[in-house]
Amino acid sequence: MGEGVEDIKKAGKAAAALPSEDEMYELADLFKMFGDSTRVKILSCLQIRNMYVGEIADTLNMTISAVSHQLRVLRGAKLVKGTKEGKEVRYSLDDDHVTKIMEYGLTHVNEDK
Amino acid sequence: MGEGVEDIKKAGKAAAALPSEDEMYELADLFKMFGDSTRVKILSCLQIRNMYVGEIADTLNMTISAVSHQLRVLRGAKLVKGTKEGKEVRYSLDDDHVTKIMEYGLTHVNEDK
DNA sequence: CAAATATTTGAACGTTCAATCAACTGTTCA
DNA sequence: TGAACAGTTGATTGAACGTTCAAATATTTG
């Protein structure tokens, strides 16, 4: 396992428009971040304003630990950024696209077709 | 567990812009579909042209069964649609947003910031 | 320095989920 | 009718993942 799209390329013409194998994996990894409701909620929080870990946990009624774990994941995906401010860590969105991607998804969700 | 965002609403002002709890779950469910490379690949195939299950499997070098299972998932999310044509089933995208969401994600992925 | 606060980290646990395999349904055609 | 082909489906298995709990790491303050 590992290729798959190489075969699409062999198909010729149509392949030109196809994202590369790597792009598809990256794409999946990106969307994976938005594919968990906890992370979506965290990102929504940060869309409103920057928050400390504890604030997010309070707001979402979650364990600080659980939030911290997810923040680590989001940090790894470069979607959020944490800045130490004394005893606390202030988190903020680290990517302009986050808001737009979520907005786009929301307009989709809110269309009863 | 089950609320969480209700609390954000209590926070007042900022909450107005927040998606509802249900919207967040739907949002996560939507993006979950794009959060798997196999599904991304299948959707990419169908972006090029409609295909039969076997064609998709060939193109992606995957088992027909595996593809069929994922097509069922995508069908459940109303992202693709299958039409029986004789012995075969032709699949096509069932949602205008699919292409746009993926395109948007791709432009993100292809930005080395 | 010790206590208190804020956050991170790692291990453990349970759940979700995609791929595989085998069996089954439907369709064509000889 | 029966063989061949196209797809679906269900059970199983293994990996990935999110939460919890306990312990560890700052950082501030008395």
What would you note in describing this structure?
Two copies of one chain form a homodimer. By secondary structure, chain A is α+β, with helices and mostly antiparallel strands. Chain A has one domain (22-109): Orthogonal Bundle (Arc Repressor Mutant, subunit A), CATH 1.10.10.10. Chain A has six helices and three strands; from the N terminus they run αααβααββα. The first copy, chain A, has helices at residues 5-10, 21-34, 37-48, 53-60, 64-76, 96-109; strands at residues 51-52, 80-85, 88-93. In chain A, helix 4 (53-60) crosses helix 5 (64-76). The longest helix of chain A is centred in the N-terminal third of the chain and has 14 residues, at 21-34. Chain A starts with a helix and ends with a helix. Mean pLDDT of chain A is 87; it is low at 6-16. At the A-B interface, helix 1, helix 2, helix 3, helix 4 and helix 6 of A face helix 1, helix 2, helix 3, helix 4 and helix 6 of B.
